[in-house]
Structures are given as structure tokens and as C-alpha cells.
Design goal:
Elements (H helix, E strand, L loop, with lengths): L13 H24 L18 E5 L8 E7 L4 E7 L11 H15 L15 E4 L6 H10 L2 E6 L4 H10 L1 H4 L5 E6 L5 H7 L5 E5 L8 H12 L13 E6 L7 H7 L3 E8 L11 E7 L2
Parallel strand pairs: 4-5, 4-7, 5-6, 7-8
Antiparallel strand pairs: 1-2, 2-3, 8-10, 9-10
Length: about 290
């Protein structure tokens, strides 16, 4: 019988093993960085998917134009239900985001027991309210209903019709409690839009508005125009305040806060526990202009 020759692969040298380990380590670090820096898909974290929340129910109208969603929100503090229309096929501005749900819950709790609410320091009789990036308008509508505030809902011009629909749909809840809703277009960074709306506000609110880095500066410019210019100075004891609910998605969002702190004092009023599928929860920040 003949002898079979077997080719043996030479053992890897220490140098080649080291190189492989370095490549694997680099690849692992890159993957981790991508995971940390990757935006959480908003479609997986919108309120419309959270059907188990108490007092929330959703109805999908597939036959209706744009397959709209009607979602009912029961506010225990006023024993009333709000109805919010979403248009998922129209884009993210027409859907409910996690930070909005946090503010809705906090406003409901504030109405029930102001003394125990983390919002007490920010609200404190502030009833002239401007909402930036309103989207569906749920936060501003809830503020009007629970606080009896006069709230101006704003967003890009193409979002305004759905905002007006939701404002009109809930007028029967808001009006009897002393609230009032106005809807207007507002493009961030546009001084003429700010002038058209005016600055007669005590409080600015927003939720989930820091996600695209190209919008950081326009948003900050609008805040500066509203809160820091001479036109924003009025005869009052307290400065206008900005209340922002935010769910961190990108590491680069820290750039927004670095820029903001050049002009505003920024502190944290409330932090939610982490949401499902996230390592962090919604944080509510307070911004006050520096003297």
C-alpha cells in the first residue's frame, strides 16, 4: 500500500496571531460604536405601539386616506379622553414619539397633585405656552386641557393641517377647562416666523426635537430669538423658560447641549426609567436664558 502524504499547515506565528487579534478587536469596537451611534428606529418606539398603557387605545382606519390612526388618551386628572389623529404614511412628524408620552404623563400628574410633580418648578402659573415641533400636537393639547393654558401649537407648514384637525377634535375637552389652542406654522431659524407669532409666552415646550444634527442650530436660533433678544424682554419677574423632553439616540446629540449651554442654563427636572429596547429613558430638561 502506498504512503499518503498529508500537507501540514505551519503553525501561526505569534506576530500573525497578534495581528488577527487586533483586527478582531478593531472590528468589535467599530460594531459597538455603530450600535451606540445608531439611531433607534422611531417606528419601533412610538406611542402607537404601546397598546398596553392604561387609558390608551388605538383604532386603525385602513380604508381612510393615508391609513390614519385615531388614538384615545384618557387623562385621569380631568376624567376626560383626548383623541389624536396620526398619519404614519406622511412621515415622522405625524406620529407620536416617546418623549411626548412622558410629558403627557407628567402634565396629567401635575394636574392631579402639583406639589409632588417634578414640573412644579417649571410651570408655576405659566399659562401662555408655545410648543415647538408639535407633530400631532398631543403635548400642547394636554397642556391646554390640564393647565387651562393658552397654547400655540407650531410645526412646519405641511404639518399644520393635521395639527389643526387634532386641536379642533379636542376643543370640547380643552375649552370648558379654560384652555385655548392656536395653530401656526413655525420654521426653526426663521426670524420672520418668530415675529409673526410674537413672544408673548411664559413657557416654551417641546418633545423629541433633537435628533437631526442639521437642525440643532436652527432650533437654538429660534430659542435665542424667542428668549434672548430685546424683543423677548418684558416687564416680568421671571424669564421665559424652555421645557424639553428628550430621549437620547445619538452620541452626537451632546453637541446640541454644548451649544445650548453657551446661551442657557440647563438642568434636569425629571428622568424616566429606560424604555423598552433602550438603555436610557426620557429626560426632561429646563432651559433658562443666561443674563
Amino acid at each position: 500500500m502506498g504512503t499518503q502524504k498529508i500537507a501540514l499547515r505551519p503553525r501561526a506565528t505569534a506576530q500573525s496571531l497578534s495581528q488577527k487579534l487586533q483586527r478582531l478587536s478593531s472590528k468589535r469596537m467599530a460594531t459597538q460604536e455603530n450600535e451606540e451611534d445608531q439611531i433607534i428606529n422611531p417606528f419601533t418606539m412610538l406611542l402607537l405601539e404601546d397598546h398596553d398603557k392604561h387609558g390608551t387605545s388605538t383604532t386603525l382606519h385602513e380604508a381612510a386616506p393615508n391609513h390614519h390612526l385615531l388614538q384615545n388618551h384618557f387623562l385621569s386628572s380631568i376624567q376626560s379622553t383626548l383623541t389624536i389623529r396620526q398619519l404614519p404614511s406622511e412621515g415622522l412628524s405625524f406620529q407620536l414619539w416617546p418623549a411626548a408620552t412622558s410629558l403627557v404623563s407628567l402634565l396629567d400628574r401635575y394636574r392631579a397633585d402639583p406639589s409632588s410633580s417634578p414640573l412644579s418648578a417649571a410651570l408655576n402659573g405659566r399659562l401662555r405656552i408655545l410648543e415647538l415641533g408639535s407633530g400631532t400636537g398631543i403635548v400642547g393639547i394636554v397642556a391646554a386641557a390640564t393647565l387651562g393654558g393658552h397654547v400655540t401649537l407650531t410645526d412646519l407648514p405641511h404639518v399644520v393641517p393635521n395639527l389643526k384637525f387634532n386641536a379642533d377634535a379636542n376643543a370640547g375637552v380643552v375649552g370648558p377647562r379654560g384652555g385655548e389652542l392656536t395653530v401656526a406654522p413655525l420654521r426653526w431659524g426663521h426670524a420672520d416666523d418668530v415675529e409673526a407669532i410674537g413672544r408673548d409666552f411664559d413657557l416654551i415646550v417641546a418633545s423629541d426635537v433633537v435628533y437631526h444634527d442639521h437642525l440643532y442650530e436652527p432650533l437654538l436660533e429660534t430659542l435665542r430669538l424667542m428668549m434672548l433678544t430685546e424683543g423677548a424682554v418684558r416687564e416680568r419677574k421671571e424669564k421665559m423658560m424652555f421645557l424639553m423632553a428628550h430621549l437620547r439616540r445619538w452620541k452626537k446629540e451632546s453637541a446640541f447641549f454644548r451649544k445650548a449651554k453657551k446661551h442657557f442654563h440647563v438642568d434636569v427636572l425629571h428622568t424616566d426609567p429606560p424604555c423598552d429596547g433602550s438603555r436610557v429613558g426620557v429626560v426632561v430638561y429646563r432651559f433658562v436664558g443666561k443674563s
